[in-house]
Amino acid sequence: MPAAPRPPEPGPPSGLPPGADAGARARRSDSWSDAELLSRHAAGDRDAFGELFRRHRGRLWAVAVRTLADPEDAAEALQDAMIKAYQAAGSFRGNSAVTTWLHRIVVNACLDRIRSAGRRPTVPLPETELRSAGGDDPAAAAMRLTVRRALAELPFDQRAVLVYIDMLGYPVEEVAAILKVRPGTVKSRASRARKRLAARLPEFDPARPTGAPPPAGNPPGQRGVEPDTAGDHGTVREEGGR
Amino acid sequence: MSARRDDEARAAGLLRAASTEYDDLPRDVADRLDRVLEQLPTADTLHRTPRPETARPARGWSERLRAHRLRYALLSATAALLITVGAVAAAVQVVSTASDTDAGALSQGSGESYEHTESDQGAAAPEQEDELAAEEEPQASGTEGADGGSEGGGEVETFATDTDYVTNMDVLTALRELGDESPRGTVPPELLALSEGGPLWDTCRKAIAEWYGGLVVVADFARFESEPAVVALLLSESGEIAVAVTPECADGTVEELYTQG
Predict the structure, then answer these.
(1) Cβ-based contacts of A111 with chain B (< 8 Å)
(2) Hey, are the CB atoms on B7 and A204 less than 8 Å from each other?
(3) CB B40 to CB A86 under 8 A?
(4) Cα distance between residue A178 and residue A102, in whole Å
(5) Shortest CA distance from B4: residue in chain A
(6) Of A51-55, A57-61, B97-101, B174-178, minimum mean pLDDT range
(7) Average pLDDT in the B83-97 region?
(8) If you average pLDDT over every residue of chain B, what do you get?
(9) Nearest-neighbour CA in chain A from B74: distance (Å)
(10) Which residues have C-beta within 8 Å of that of residue A68, sequence separation ≥ 6?
(11) Interface probe with B: pick from A148, A163, A170, most Cβ of B within 10 Å
């Protein structure tokens, strides 16, 4: 019976000599492309995936938290997506950019999250929103809350498009690649979604006097969420939005 | 027209403004992700079989069911044994009591005890059947054919017309016109598990419904541009939508091939 093939040595995986310091590794891995990191991960490099995911998790978080409107759900979705990407890296064929692939996994994890919970995303209570807005104009903060609520009411496909294009400023072509649809579909979906959103906003109601506040409270069937009060915990700023 | 465009532009502006309200990745979430990552097994042990999750649900379900049945059979056998032992003990007690008082009553007493035993077993049997039937229910609905979607997939009417839908076709109308007289073709092999109904179809149906914000009313297990596809008609707030998605919907992933409406 032939001997089993020897598994690749797990470390140090970066091609650095044993004993090389973490700083040297970090400098080296900074120069690696996403695809290189992914293939190193598939070959058994324990640190490569962490490096790759850390590179993009801020932007992936930005998508998840806007799509799900609840930080806890977003954290769960991001974790699920990370594990799925970790496991599926071997099947990545390089037909798209690694970032596109990661975003696609996150979008699906968000959808899974919504579906498994059997409900629409949660939206913070007005007082939460107004408090987190700090010294901002309360009317403007209330309007932003109404927008977030209206967004949460949209079908998932439309919501995802608006999050990417209008909230995070991604180009249509990139969103099309992430969602695996044609750019024309992304545009028409975004247009339909904006109209639908506008129809749900009192701001767009011609009968509503200017400056009247939107109705308070969560929409039916949605629970309020305790705030992530600013200052309670730090944020990973360098990985933030686009 | 211009007013609509203005509305769209304003909605986009409001979304941009609302987007600034969200926090960046919180430190505790980042730390949690790092901790989870550290606990994952080495990557090279995971990549031998690509996409193991896709094929797993159907097998997992039947295996789970089989495990339940085995456990139930063992429990039933144990219960039957206990009942028999109990009945025999009762009979022995009746016999010994009767022998103290009236020897003539012996046969009657033991007869009663045996009747009691039989009735106990008789009572246990329907219960056993009921529980087995209850266990088999999901499987029964899961083995619904492609035309029997009413139980396996809510109110969805399912078909397998063998149609190869294409982009420049009016898919919406084609789906609307599906009915009893529609041709019955073969289901593409990639869609066979889905077309049988059950949990995979349920997951797929829910994923489509959630993704498009509508209710799936018709599904054709067919092809789109030669690719195996679930071609579905949905009812939504904004009207009817026709969509084609890949078989990946079985694991809750919506990969859109086409949309109209």
Answers:
(1) 207, 210-211, 252-254
(2) yes
(3) yes
(4) 9
(5) A195
(6) B97-101
(7) 71
(8) 70
(9) 33
(10) A74, A77, A110, A113, A114, A121, A122
(11) A148
Contacts of A74 (CB under 8 A, 6+ apart): A61, A64, A65, A67, A68, A110
Write the CB contacts of B162 (distance below 8 Å, at least 6 apart in sequence).
B183, B185, B186, B222, B223
Cβ-Cβ contacts under 8 Å for A216 (sequence gap 6 or more): A126
Query: B184-191 — which CB contacts under 8 Å span 24+ positions?
Result: B184/B147, B184/B159, B184/B160, B185/B160, B185/B161, B185/B222, B186/B160, B186/B162, B187/B146, B187/B160, B187/B221, B188/B221, B188/B222, B188/B223, B188/B228, B189/B228, B190/B228, B190/B247, B191/B221, B191/B228, B191/B229, B191/B230, B191/B247
Please tell me the predicted confidence (pLDDT) of residue A26: 62
Which residue among B25, B27, B212 places its CB closest to the CB of A155?
Answer: B212
The residue ranges of DSSP E strands in B19-168, in sequence order, are: 157-159, 164-165
**Pick from A50, A115, A158: which is nearest to B37 by CB?**
A50
Residues of A in contact with B213 (CB under 8 A): 154-158
Q: How confident is the model at residue B74 (pLDDT cuts 50, 70, 90)?
A: low
Distance from CA of B29 to the nearest CA of A (A): 6
Count residue pairs from A and B with Cβ separation < 8 A: 192
What confidence score (pLDDT) does residue A136 get? 63
CA distance linking residue B159 with residue B188, whole number of Å:
12
Least Cα separation, residue A86 to chain B (angstroms):
7
Sign of CA dihedral A108, A111, A116, A121: positive
Predicted ipTM > 0.85 = no
Question: What DSSP character marks residue B26?
Answer: B
Q: Choose the weakest-confidence range: A58-72, A124-138, B31-45, B88-102.
A: A124-138
Quickly state the pLDDT bin for B184 (edges 50, 70, 90): confident
Rounded Cα gap, residues A90 and A85, in angstroms: 9
DSSP string, A176-229: HHHHTS-HHHHHHHHHHHHHHHHHT-GGG-TTSPTTPPPPPSPPTT--------
